[in-house]
């Protein structure tokens, strides 16, 4: 485990340096190119401001509605809406085409003078409530308010229509039955009146207990037949609806007192005591519930069918659910039919039993005459028809009351408010434009960074090149824009700048531990203005102050200017020595730095490559090595002339200068490849003009504090 940690620690440090370097690179890019963000931001805000200026204003009207989670019609439970997906379903209905189309027609009919304009409707729900907030946005304030109010009214009407749909069928059936039953009741009443007018019924008051009991039997028989006729005349749905709204009790009547207790028990046994034939059926309730769910599912299919294709997964799932519920409905219907038939059979048996009883007791009451029986029959028939009519009328009234009460479950809590200007459009538009402008600016900066392959930190240099980095020279500014950067001076206060060249000197001195210490060094770069001449001069000064005898050679025979940096008058130099055979010793100049000598370039020439390839140059190098510890040759840039590639193979090593945030990595690689092709020995790279704020160099600031607090003597 310790070995793994030791192996991964450098990787973590390298990743940290790379990350910090990348952050600093983007920071520097932002500091240099901040105007890109400002331009993009101002441009985006300006375009959005113009767009808003020419965009017609919009107005907002707000309303609130309370929708009950569940609506029940108690009589027969004709309509029920459960909680499942309730809020989403209601919001979709409010925004559905049916409601919106009705609302447009309603506004057009009620407000013909208002100019219609497109209105957007948004629906949201207050948390933990069933209060819906409706928000309409449009260009005409009057039309927007009227449209929102019409949407709320039409939604309430739609809910009312959905509730009434299930009840209308039953109401129509009950109405038809009542109309058919009324003439029959009138006919029976007329027959009773005729019978009473032609017969003396006083004998009924003097009849014995048998006659009274026989009358009770007839009455029970008439009630049973009434129930049986009701079952026969109504459909399965109507019967189930009535079952859930009634439970008639046929209380057993005792025998006439004159017949004794035993006969009373027999009568109760014959009549069946308390009737339970019309108790509510569980299967019937399930059948009605499934049927209501199918109606709701059909309405949802129609609504989604307006904007979904038949093969859409949601439509397919709804079709499968509809088929499944249809099969379940068939099963419950069959079972309900079986139960209904069983009830009819039981009622028929009860009627048959009552008929047998009436015949038995009728023979004992034969002496009372057929008149009494006829009268009882007419009276029972009249009562049966009246009871049936009363039941139908009560059911009809209950359905109407519930149907009228159901819309109260949808309440307009807050009517549509007066439309007010929409100020959020300006805020959102400017905010979006600002973010878009900043995003565009950042994208441009990132693109510029990707295109720009100039290096700004030591970490980036290490990532791109395998060559050793001999030193890092911090960036120093000239005291005056019209003057060059001053060379190193005794007691120079640019401490980080001085220390960087001392580190470079140490890198050269300690090369002897790993190989032969180079004596002849060529200082070059890829392109002009990389700082190679300053690097060569300051390195020579540092080596000389360290006790080494140093010859600084200006090898840029075209534009060399080292003599001007050291403020030396030079009429002759290396050019005359190589071209005319002049003794180079005569051209060497002493500098103000001890142990440092300068060989100027001499007269400018365009044939420097040929001079470097000649034998005189080789002789010159051999002689200088004998007299000096180090010979530093400042040459032209690699990409500017062929001088470097001609001279590099003849020296001990090449020091390549790379300027931070200036030199292209591609150009540096091409220059190094050219040197390697000529078999040059590249000792390493010098990273010049590095910003101290870039990752890896911030500790240089502490050096300044260290030197500034050192007490002088």
Structural category: alpha/beta
Shape: rod-shaped
Largest sheet: 8 strands, mixed
Low-confidence stretches: 1-7, 71-81, 247-274, 698-702, 709-713
Number of domains: 4
Please tell me the overall pLDDT: 79
Q: Compute the separation of the termini in Å.
A: 54 Å
Number of helices: 22
User: How would you write the strand order of the largest sheet?
Assistant: 6-13-12-7-11-8-10-9
Residue fraction in strands: 5-15%
Radius of gyration using CA atoms only: 55 Å
Portion of residues in helices? 55-70%
Task: Give me the count of strands.
Answer: 13
Keywords:
4 domains, disordered N terminus, disordered C terminus, single chain, rod-shaped, Alpha-Beta Plaits, alpha/beta, 8-stranded mixed β-sheet, about 725 residues
Question: What does this protein look like?
Answer:
This protein is of the alpha/beta class and 713 residues long. It has four domains: 2-55 and 425-451, no CATH class; 59-166 and 413-419, Alpha-Beta Plaits (2-Layer Sandwich); 175-406, no CATH class; 458-474 and 494-708, P-loop containing nucleotide triphosphate hydrolases (Rossmann fold, 3-Layer(aba) Sandwich). Helices cover 58% and strands 11% of the residues. The chain contains 22 helices and 13 strands. The strands form two sheets. It has an eight-stranded mixed β-sheet, sandwiched between helices. A hairpin with a 5-residue loop joins strand 9 (589-590) and strand 10. Helix 6 runs antiparallel to helix 10 (313-364) and helix 14 crosses helix 15.
């Amino acid at each position: 485990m310790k070995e793994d940690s030791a192996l991964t620690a450098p990787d973590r440090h390298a990743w940290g340096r790379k990350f910090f370097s990348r952050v600093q690179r983007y920071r520097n890019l932002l500091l240099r190119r901040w105007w890109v963000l400002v331009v993009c931001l101002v441009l985006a805000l300006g375009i959005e401001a113009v767009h808003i200026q020419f965009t017609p204003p919009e107005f907002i009207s707000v309303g609130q509605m309370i929708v009950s989670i569940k609506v029940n019609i108690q009589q027969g439970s004709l309509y029920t809406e459960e909680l499942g997906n309730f809020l989403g379903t209601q919001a979709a209905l409010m925004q559905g085409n049916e409601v919106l189309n009705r609302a447009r027609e309603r506004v057009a009919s009620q407000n013909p003078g208002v100019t219609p304009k497109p209105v957007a409707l948004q629906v949201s729900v207050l948390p933990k409530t069933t209060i819906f907030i409706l928000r309409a946005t449009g260009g005409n304030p009057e039309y927007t308010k009227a449209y929102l109010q019409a949407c709320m009214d039409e939604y309430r009407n739609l809910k009312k229509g959905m509730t009434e749909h299930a009840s209308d069928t039953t109401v129509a059936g009950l109405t038809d039955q009542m109309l058919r039953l009324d003439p029959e009741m009138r006919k029976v009443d007329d027959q009773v009146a005729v019978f009473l007018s032609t017969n003396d019924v006083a004998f009924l008051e003097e009849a014995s207990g048998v006659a009274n009991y026989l009358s009770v039997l007839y009455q029970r028989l008439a009630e049973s037949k009434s129930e049986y006729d009701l079952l026969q005349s109504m459909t399965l749905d109507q019967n189930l609806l009535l079952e859930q709204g009634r439970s008639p009790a046929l209380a057993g009547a005792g025998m006439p007192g004159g017949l004794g207790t035993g006969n009373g028990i027999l009568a109760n046994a014959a009549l069946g005591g308390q009737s339970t034939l019309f108790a509510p059926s569980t299967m019937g309730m399930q059948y009605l519930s499934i049927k209501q769910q199918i109606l709701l599912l059909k309405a949802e299919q129609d609504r989604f069918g307006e904007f979904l294709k038949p093969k859409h997964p949601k439509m397919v799932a709804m079709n499968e659910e509809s088929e499944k519920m249809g099969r379940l409905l068939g099963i419950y219907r069959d079972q309900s039919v079986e139960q209904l038939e069983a009830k009819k059979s039981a009622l028929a048996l009860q009627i048959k039993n009552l008929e047998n009883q009436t015949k038995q007791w009728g023979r004992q009451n034969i002496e009372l005459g057929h008149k009494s029986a006829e009268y009882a029959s007419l009276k029972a028939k009249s009562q049966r028809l009246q009871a049936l009519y009363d039941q139908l009328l009560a059911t009809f009234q209950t359905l109407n009351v519930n149907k009228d009460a159901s819309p109260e479950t949808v309440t307009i809590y807050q009517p549509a408010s007066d439309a007010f200007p929409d100020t959020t459009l300006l805020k959102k538009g400017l905010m979006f434009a600002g973010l878009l402008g900043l995003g565009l600016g950042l994208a441009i900066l990132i693109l510029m960074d990707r295109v720009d392959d100039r290096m700004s930190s030591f970490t980036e240099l290490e990532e791109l090149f395998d060559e050793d980095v001999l030193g890092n020279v911090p960036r120093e500014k000239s005291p005056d824009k019209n003057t060059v950067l001053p060379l190193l001076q005794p007691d120079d206060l640019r401490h980080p700048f001085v220390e960087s060249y001392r580190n470079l000197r140490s890198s050269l001195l300690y090369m002897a531990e790993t190989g032969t210490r180079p004596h002849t060094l060529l200082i070059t770069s890829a392109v002009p203005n990389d700082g190679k001449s300053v690097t060569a001069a300051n390195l020579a000064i540092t080596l000389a102050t360290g006790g080494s005898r140093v010859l600084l050679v200006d090898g840029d025979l075209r534009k060399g200017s080292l003599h001007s940096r050291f403020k030396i008058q030079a009429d002759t130099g290396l050019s005359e020595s190589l071209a005319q055979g002049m003794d180079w010793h005569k051209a060497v100049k002493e500098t103000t730095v001890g142990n440092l000598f300068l060989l100027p370039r001499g007269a400018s020439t365009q044939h420097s490559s040929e001079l470097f390839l000649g034998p005189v140059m080789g002789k010159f190098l051999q002689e200088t090595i004998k007299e000096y510890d180090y010979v530093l040759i400042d040459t032209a840039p690699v990409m500017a002339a062929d001088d470097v590639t001609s001279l590099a193979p003849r020296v001990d090593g090449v020091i390549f200068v790379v300027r931070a945030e200036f030199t292209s990595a591609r150009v540096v690689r091409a220059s190094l490849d050219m040197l390697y092709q000529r078999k040059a020995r590249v000792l390493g790279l010098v990273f010049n003009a590095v910003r101290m704020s870039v990752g890896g160099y911030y500790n240089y600031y502490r050096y300044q504090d260290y030197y500034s607090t050192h007490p002088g003597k």
